[in-house]
């Protein structure tokens, strides 16, 4: 008997191929319910042949950090069982933060836009989750005999608002008259690369693939971008000799169906192939209730086909340079309608239609939704409409509703910013309260917390994922692109990614990068040599000195390295290692190297930013530093520096908070809106009309 333990968030369908394998005994446990008893959990792992750590919506490195904190990492490493890390969803942090691949025999990544960063020797991209083909690689490291086949035509059905179920029914009727078998499916992504290519692994038969798009945006293929008004491509052979026909139904108009049927018939008449297949792709999500409706309506016409998979292709690691696409969870229907709601909201908002139209869309989608909170939301919106509340406030409320439904709020952040102005927000709260609905309800805590997180994201807080989300890339483009040889100081450069970005945007920029950590500096020096900028193995402070820097004991120079041990002890719950570093001052450096100006001073030194600026009072007083970008975050709690301290130090500067697509002015200092100790980038621009000296 082969013993398998699966820990994490497990769905019944996810493990069906493991469950069906012969002589396999499976146990499942939610590892995060056992955090307080990790030792017993490891004892349980010791009795297994294979342990799969399945993490959804959690930072992949969190389990390793827990083991370190409990001094159990050695126990884990010495386990004899095979260990597989199974990560999913694009909102994960980078798995390589703590070199996760060093602690697992295999690492699978699904739905993650960070795949290009992974160690290609151990990390595998899952082109279609939870299918036998996806698990083929486990066969090499375990005794499980998997069936070597992949569900190409598994029942993927997607449904969305309006009368599209009627469109499905009519398409089904058309296809049935043509004696075509078909299935419904969805896909993720809008890249020009062909998103269904992985599904053709091992297919050697000739057949006709008719891909019908039921989306409002472009139907994108690898060979051509199809116009929305309806284009049918014929006689386009793929590598396996299959013909791809492509047709887009514009805005789900049923009047397009007759044209579709005509062109389909013409195309099929041009081919002499008898084997045919239809895939209807729709980008929206589905509830189980609608799957049942579609199944009952079209069940007799649905077709599932299993095709053999080339074993070597099934084991192909994720290509480092390509964008990830997949067809979602085979056999798993999610309840996340966020994408549908956001799309509907934007469609109505962009056309400046009354909010009641959006309300009707929602009522058409879920007229008898069993989830009480959504019924409550719906009733509140109906009440708003009856009170003739302005559409702006209703849109704002709708946006709050969207964010309360999902942890993944990247897509709504851009929409949130332009309508989250102060007056609209206060009007929203006033109308919300006047209609007898209280936000201050303990039962609403989780929803309110998500609303709070969305609100802080919309004002530039916790947008840390990358330079696009943080707004740094957009800021550098607008600030540096047109400058002739701007002088940029990158203080706290780490491995040089920020300096590289500066040189990419403006190759003429003169960049000075500073990193006191010797391990990080080794990487920085190599980047500087390649990028043609200067690198220095020093840090800056208010006085020149030798000090201790704290970091993870097994890190080779992490982005969390800091002068404050409390950052690790209090915030990261970790006892750090220390190393000695050299600190100078910006004033001294400018003097020694005869540098007359700094066009952009970027500072990211984990809580020590104020002290760096304190060491530049001479340059600040002379007005030779035009723009300063510095990070303000939870590390300032340990360094005990407030944002107000920066205001006092820089009276001749205007302050802004960096947003993904611009700068948010920080005027009229208020502790409530300014002293938020969480990741954010502050930009201070010198006001040439002001002559005040920097604070003493």
TrEMBL record:
It comes from hydrocarbon metagenome. InterPro entries: FkbM_Methyltransferase (IPR053188), FkbM_mtfrase (IPR006342), SAM-dependent_MTases_sf (IPR029063). This is Methyltransferase FkbM domain-containing protein. Pfam families: Methyltransf_21. Residues 490-634 form the Methyltransferase FkbM domain. GO terms for molecular function: O-methyltransferase activity.
């Amino acid at each position: 008997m082969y013993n398998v333990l699966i820990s994490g968030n497990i769905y019944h369908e996810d493990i069906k191929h493991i469950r069906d394998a012969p002589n396999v005994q499976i146990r499942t446990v939610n590892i995060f319910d056992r955090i307080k008893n990790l030792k017993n959990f490891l004892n349980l792992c010791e009795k297994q042949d294979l342990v799969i750590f399945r993490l959804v919506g959690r930072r992949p490195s969190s389990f390793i950090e827990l083991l370190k904190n409990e001094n159990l990492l050695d126990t884990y490493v010495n386990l004899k069982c095979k260990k597989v890390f199974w990560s999913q969803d694009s909102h994960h942090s980078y798995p390589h933060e703590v070199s996760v691949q060093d602690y697992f025999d295999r690492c699978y990544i699904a739905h993650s836009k960070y795949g290009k960063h992974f160690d290609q020797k151990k990390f595998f991209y899952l082109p279609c989750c939870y299918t036998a083909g996806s698990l083929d690689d486990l066969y090499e490291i375990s005794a499980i005999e998997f069936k070597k086949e992949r569900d190409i035509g598994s029942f993927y059905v997607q449904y969305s608002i309006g009368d599209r179920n009627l469109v499905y029914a009519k398409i089904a009727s058309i296809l049935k008259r043509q004696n075509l078998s078909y299935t419904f499916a969805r896909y993720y992504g809008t890249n020009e690369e062909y998103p269904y290519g992985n599904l053709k692994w091992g297919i050697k038969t000739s057949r006709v693939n008719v891909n019908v798009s039921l989306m409002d945006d472009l139907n994108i293929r690898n060979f051509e971008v199809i116009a929305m008004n309806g284009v049918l491509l014929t006689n386009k052979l793929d590598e396996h000799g299959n013909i791809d026909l492509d047709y887009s139904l514009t805005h789900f108009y049923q009047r397009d169906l007759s044209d579709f049927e005509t062109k389909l018939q013409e195309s099929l008449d041009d081919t002499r192939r008898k084997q045919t297949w239809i895939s209807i792709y729709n980008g929206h999500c589905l509830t189980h209730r609608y799957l049942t409706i579609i199944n009952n309506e079209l069940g007799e016409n649905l077709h599932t086909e299993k095709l053999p998979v080339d074993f070597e292709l099934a084991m192909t690691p994720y290509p480092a340079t390509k964008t990830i696409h997949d067809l979602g969870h085979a056999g798993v229907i999610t309840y996340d309608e966020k994408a549908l709601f956001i799309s509907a909201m934007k469609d109505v908002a962009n056309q400046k239609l009354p909010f009641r139209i959006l309300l009707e869309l929602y009522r058409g989608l879920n007229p008898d939704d069993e989830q009480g909170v959504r019924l409550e939301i719906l009733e509140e919106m109906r009440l708003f409409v009856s009170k003739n509340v302005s559409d702006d406030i209703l849109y704002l409320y709708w946006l709050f509703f969207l964010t309360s439904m999902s942890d993944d709020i990247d897509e709504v952040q851009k929409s949130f910013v332009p309508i989250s102005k102060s007056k609209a927000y206060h009007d929203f709260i006033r109308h919300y309260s006047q209609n007898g609905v209280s936000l201050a309800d303990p039962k609403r805590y989780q929803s309110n917390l998500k609303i709070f997180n969305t609100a802080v994201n919309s004002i530039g807080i916790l947008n840390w994922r990358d330079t696009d989300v943080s707004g740094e890339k957009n800021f550098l483009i607008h600030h540096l692109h047109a400058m002739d040889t701007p002088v940029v100081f990158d203080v706290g450069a780490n491995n040089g990614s920020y300096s590289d970005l500066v040189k990419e945007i403006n190759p003429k920029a003169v960049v000075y990068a500073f990193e006191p950590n010797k391990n990080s500096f080794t990487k920085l020096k190599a980047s500087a040599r390649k990028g043609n900028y200067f690198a220095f193995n020093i840090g800056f402070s208010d006085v020149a000195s030798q000090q201790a820097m704290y970091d993870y004991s097994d890190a080779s120079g992490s982005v969390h390295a800091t002068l404050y041990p409390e950052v690790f002890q209090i915030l990261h719950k970790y006892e750090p290692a220390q190393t000695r570093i050299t600190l100078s001052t910006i004033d001294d450096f400018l003097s020694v190297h005869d540098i007359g100006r700094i066009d952009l001073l970027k500072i990211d030194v984990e809580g020590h930013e104020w002290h760096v600026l304190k060491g530049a009072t001479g340059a600040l007083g002379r007005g030779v530093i035009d723009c300063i970008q510095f990070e303000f975050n939870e590390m300032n709690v340990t360094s005990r520096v407030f944002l107000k301290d920066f205001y006092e130090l820089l009276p001749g500067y205007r302050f802004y908070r960096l947003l993904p697509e611009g700068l948010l002015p920080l005027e009229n200092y208020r502790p409530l809106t300014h002293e938020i100790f969480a990741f954010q980038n502050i930009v201070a621009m010198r006001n040439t009309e002001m002559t005040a000296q920097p604070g003493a």
